[in-house]
Design a protein that fits this description.
The complex is a heterodimer of chains A (about 160) and B (about 120). By secondary structure, chain A is of the alpha+beta class. Chain A has five helices and five strands, in the order E-H-H-E-E-H-H-H-E-E. Chain A has a single domain, classed as 2-Layer Sandwich (Heat Shock Protein 90). Chain B is of the alpha/beta class and about 120 residues long. Chain B has a single domain, classed as 2-Layer Sandwich (Transcription Regulator spoIIAA). In chain B, about 40% of the residues lie in helices and about 20% in strands. A six-stranded mixed β-sheet of chain B has the order 1-2-3-4-5-6, covered by helices on one side. Chain B is globular. Classes of the chains: A alpha+beta (about 160), B alpha/beta (about 120). At the A-B interface, helix 1, helix 2 and helix 4 of A face helix 1, helix 2 and helix 3 of B.
C-alpha cells in the first residue's frame, strides 16, 4: 500500500462530504484496485464528516486521513457545543466496552427508536464505525470558551489484504 | 395519475414513484443533514397515494453511499412498505449491490434482520 495523506481545514456541508468521499474513493481505487470494501472504508469518512457538519458551531472543520501500512486513520476536529462534545465522548467511551453482540443489539435498538437527534443525527455514527471494523475510536474534548469545546475524533481502521 | 418525482442533488437521491408504470425507485447518494424529513415526505406521499399502487409493486433501492441518518430514515420507509406487505400486498423490495460491495450488502442484511422482511439483492 502506498502511503498518502490529506489535510483539510475549512467549511463543511453535505455537498462537501460527497466531494471528499469521491476523492477518497478515487485514491483508494488507484492504490488498491477495485475491491469490495472501498465503500465501507469511505463510509468512515462519511460518518466523521457528517458529525462535523452537524455539530461544528462555526461550520468549520479540520479533517485528515493518513493511509500508512495496512491502516487508514481519520481525524476530525471541530468546535462544538459542550453538550454535543461531551455526549460524543461518552458515547465513544461506552461503545469501546461493547462486545460484538452488544454492539449489534445497540445498533438494532437505536435503529428502531423513532426519534432522531435534535440536529438530525441518528446517533449511529461511532457505533457503525465500530461494527464495520474500526480498531480505535478516540474522542477528546477540551474547553475552548464558555459553552464551547474543541472536539477531536480519531478513528483507525485496518485495510484488509486480499 | 399522480407520481412523485424528486430530482437528484449532490447529496440526495433521485426519487421516482410512478404507480401507473410500477416504478418505485430511490437512486443515488444520500448524505443530507435532514434525512428524516427527506424520507418522511416519501412515506407521507405513499400514505396519500397507496390506493393507486399496483398489487405487485416493486420498490428499487440503489444507494451507493449514505450516512447513518439516511439508514435510519430508510428503515422508516421500509417499515411502511412492510406494512403494505403485511396487509396482503404482493410488494417486493430490490436492493442493488455493485461488485459484491460490502457496504451495500451489509446494509441490506441489516434491514432484513431488523424488519424480518425479504430483500432481493440485485447485483
Amino acid at each position: 500500500m502506498k502511503e498518502n495523506a490529506l489535510n483539510y481545514f475549512g467549511k463543511i456541508d453535505e455537498h462537501c462530504i460527497v466531494e471528499f468521499v469521491d476523492l477518497l474513493n478515487g485514491i483508494l481505487t488507484r492504490n488498491l484496485g477495485a475491491r469490495k470494501d472501498l465503500r465501507k472504508i469511505c463510509s468512515f469518512a462519511i460518518e466523521l464528516l457528517d458529525n462535523g457538519m452537524r455539530y461544528s458551531v462555526d461550520d468549520n472543520i479540520s479533517f485528515s486521513w493518513i493511509i500508512q501500512n495496512d491502516h487508514i486513520t481519520f481525524e476530525l476536529q471541530n468546535l462544538a457545543q459542550k453538550d454535543d462534545a461531551v455526549r460524543l465522548r461518552e458515547q465513544a467511551d461506552l461503545i469501546r466496552t461493547f462486545s460484538e453482540e452488544e454492539s449489534d443489539n445497540e445498533f438494532r435498538k437505536v435503529m428502531l427508536e423513532p426519534q432522531f437527534g435534535k440536529k438530525g443525527g441518528a446517533g449511529l455514527g461511532l457505533l457503525q464505525m465500530l461494527r464495520k471494523g474500526a480498531v480505535r475510536i478516540d474522542v477528546d474534548v477540551n474547553k475552548s470558551t464558555e459553552g464551547e469545546y474543541v472536539c477531536v475524533c480519531k478513528i483507525v481502521t485496518p485495510i484488509k489484504r486480499y | 395519475m399522480s407520481q412523485l418525482v424528486i430530482a437528484p442533488t449532490k447529496s440526495t437521491p433521485e426519487i421516482f414513484f410512478h404507480p401507473a408504470e410500477n416504478i418505485f425507485m430511490v437512486k443515488g447518494i444520500s448524505t443530507p443533514i435532514n434525512a428524516f424529513e427527506f424520507y418522511q415526505n416519501i412515506v407521507a406521499w405513499m400514505n396519500d397515494h397507496e390506493s393507486a399502487f399496483p398489487q405487485n409493486a416493486t420498490f428499487v433501492f440503489n444507494l451507493p453511499y449514505f450516512n447513518s441518518a439516511t439508514m435510519k430514515a430508510i428503515l422508516i420507509l421500509l417499515e411502511r412498505i412492510k406494512t403494505g406487505i403485511d396487509q396482503g400486498k404482493d410488494w417486493t423490495i430490490e436492493w442493488f449491490v455493485e461488485d459484491d460491495d460490502e457496504f451495500m450488502l451489509e446494509a441490506a442484511e441489516s434491514f432484513q434482520g431488523i424488519l424480518g422482511i425479504n430483500i432481493k439483492i440485485i447485483s
